[in-house]
């Protein structure tokens, strides 16, 4: 399964980004391969509609789960339509800490 985490940088040590639509990067973790891939959010600086655009970008990656700090209503609707599960994580946690917490079942759904 592929897991997406909104993040501020391009390494597993990068902190989680709390703002879903304006996240600079998306960390994609493949549970089968136990490997990360980092993708730039090309919509982060758009004037409007960044939440749904970011949601579509995530859906296009094939991720089945997204973990973020907070998510707006329009982005949430787009994520729900794509049938992607959404979990909350604090911005203090790193990407790798977030994966560990998710795998332990410590994160709560939005």
Describe the secondary structure blueprint for this structure.
Elements: E1 2-7, E2 25-30, E3 35-40, H1 50-61, E4 65-68, H2 73-81, E5 85-88, H3 95-104, E6 108-109
Parallel strand pairs: 1-4, 4-5
Antiparallel strand pairs: 1-2, 2-3, 5-6
Helix pairs in contact: 1-2
Short characterization:
The chain has 110 residues and is α/β, with parallel strands linked by helices.
Q: Would you identify the regions where 5 or more consecutive residues have pLDDT less than 50?
A: none
Q: Whole-number average pLDDT?
A: 96
Number of strands: 6
- Main beta-sheet strand count, sense and barrel state: 6 strands, mixed
* Radius of gyration, whole Å: 12 Å
Oligomer: single chain
Query: What structural category arises from helix and sheet content?
Result: alpha/beta
What string gives the helices and strands in order?
A: EEEHEHEHE
Domain Dinitrogenase iron-molybdenum cofactor biosynthesis: 14-104
InterPro entries: Di-Nase_FeMo-co_biosynth, DiNase_FeMo-co_biosyn_sf
Protein name: Dinitrogenase iron-molybdenum cofactor biosynthesis protein
What does this structure look like?
- By secondary structure, the chain is an alpha/beta fold.
- 28% of the residues lie in helices and 25% in strands.
- The chain is built from three helices and six strands.
- The chain has helices at 50-61, 73-81, 95-104, and strands at residues 2-7, 25-30, 35-40, 65-68, 85-88, 108-109.
- It has a six-stranded mixed beta sheet with strand order 3-2-1-4-5-6, sandwiched between helices.
- Strand 2 and strand 3 form a beta hairpin.
- Helix 1 packs parallel to helix 2.
- The chain is globular.
- It starts with a strand and ends with a strand.
- The model has no long low-confidence stretch (mean pLDDT 96).
């Amino acid at each position: 399964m592929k897991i997406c985490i909104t993040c501020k940088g391009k390494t597993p040590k990068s902190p989680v980004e709390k703002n879903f639509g304006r996240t600079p990067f998306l960390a994609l973790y493949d549970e089968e391969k136990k490997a990360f891939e980092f993708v730039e959010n090309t919509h982060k600086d758009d004037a409007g509609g960044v939440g749904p655009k970011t949601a579509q970008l995530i859906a296009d990656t094939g991720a089945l789960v997204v973990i973020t700090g907070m998510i707006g209503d329009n982005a949430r609707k787009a994520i729900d339509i794509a049938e992607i599960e959404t979990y909350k994580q604090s911005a203090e946690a790193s990407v790798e800490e977030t994966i560990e917490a998710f795998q332990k079942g410590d994160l709560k759904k939005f």
